[in-house]
Amino acid sequence: MNRHAQSAVMFLLGATLLHAGSTDLYLRYVKAGLRPLLLLSGAVLIAAAVATLWYERRGADHGDHDDHGAHDDHGDHDDHADHHREPRVSWLLVLPLLALVLVAPPALGSYSAMRSGTALQQAYGYDDLPATGPLRLGVADYAGRAVYDHGRELRGREIKVTGFVALDASGRPYLVRMALNCCAADAQPVKIALTGKIPPVLRPDAWLEATGTYTPERTKDPVNNGPIPYLKVTSARPVATPSDPYDETWNN
Predict the structure, then answer these.
(1) Are the C-beta atoms of 210 and 196 separated by less than 8 Å?
(2) Contacts of 9 (CB under 8 A, 6+ apart)
(3) Residue 81, Cα to own-chain centre: how many angstroms?
(4) Which of 31, 25, 38, 37 minimizes the C-alpha distance to 249?
(5) What span, in angstroms and rounded, lies between the C-alpha atoms of 178 and 117?
(6) What's this model's pTM, rounded to 2 decimal places?
(7) In Å, what is the CA distance from 32 to each residue of 38, 67, 247, 249?
(8) Which residue in 173, 174, 171 sits closest to 189, CA to CA?
């Protein structure tokens, strides 16, 4: 590609990054904490595209001035050689950028979750929880406290957890969030098995707010034998998909 085409592609890429970073679109790809770097990258690419185009035109203007009156019989041939057509197939590089804006992929869901083992990790410690009132916990936070802290601060408390529904081969229901280290490419599931008053009809990938209590009952993930705690459900209700579908609390 010539410099003008390169500038155009760089500008489009920078604009796409700025668009994704200024909306919730970027949350489909990277963790929320990377937003400043995404916006900075977009701005740098746009600046580089403008600078490349400016230097290219400046060089062309100087070249025209230096070569004024120096054409010979081969001028037309030289001009044709200097302005040959680049392969149009190179513009296919723009298609992924358009796809990024126009066709945002859905967040990873139950299909990926049930084909990967739970990624639950033991935290270095757990923050103190409020002494009264219902506890709103993330899937990874509840699972970590239930397994590694043995439910020390969870016993006898009303707990609310939100995640998407996943069903294993036997139909056992789980509440799941995909946990991120950096981006969606390294997302791994953290799972809670549900027991108690479970809704009679559960649709995989539907988002659910489950209210219940801690139970010491556990099971093992059939994929990697990792520990999966249970939540004893007292009620559940469907909720909308959150703007950030991934869980980052496990590596904070």
Answers:
(1) no
(2) 1, 93, 94, 97
(3) 46
(4) 31
(5) 11
(6) 0.70
(7) 10, 54, 10, 11
(8) 174
Alpha-carbon distance of 210 to 142, in angstroms, equals 12
CA 127 – CA 113 distance, rounded (Å) = 27
Please answer whether residues 179 and 123 qualify as being in contact, where contact means their C-beta atoms are separated by less than 8 angstroms: no
Could you tell me the maximum CA-CA distance found in the chain, to the nearest angstrom? 95
Collapsing DSSP to helix, strand or coil, 182 comes out as: coil
Q: C-alpha distances in angstroms, 124 versus 16, 129, 250, 252?
A: 38, 16, 11, 10
HSE-CB at 153 with a 13 A cutoff on CA atoms is: 20
Burial 61-70 (b: 16+ CB within 10 A, else e): eeeeeeeeee
- Residue 190: what are its φ and ψ, rounded to 5°? -120, 130
Nearest to 107 by CA among 251, 248, 246, 250: 246
Per-residue confidence in pLDDT tens, the chain, 252 aa? 566 677 777 877 887 787 777 777 777 777 777 778 878 888 888 888 888 878 777 766 666 555 555 555 555 544 544 445 556 666 676 677 666 666 666 778 888 899 989 989 888 888 888 888 899 999 999 999 999 999 999 999 999 999 999 999 888 999 999 888 777 677 889 999 999 999 988 999 999 999 999 999 999 998 999 999 999 999 999 999 888 788 766 555
Q: Tokens in use for 114?
A: 């049930």
Please provide the size of the chain in residues.
Answer: 252
How is residue 137 written in tokens?
């916990």
- 140: tokens are 């990874």
Kindly give the interhelix angle for 3-22 and 95-102, rounded to the nearest 10 degrees.
Answer: 20
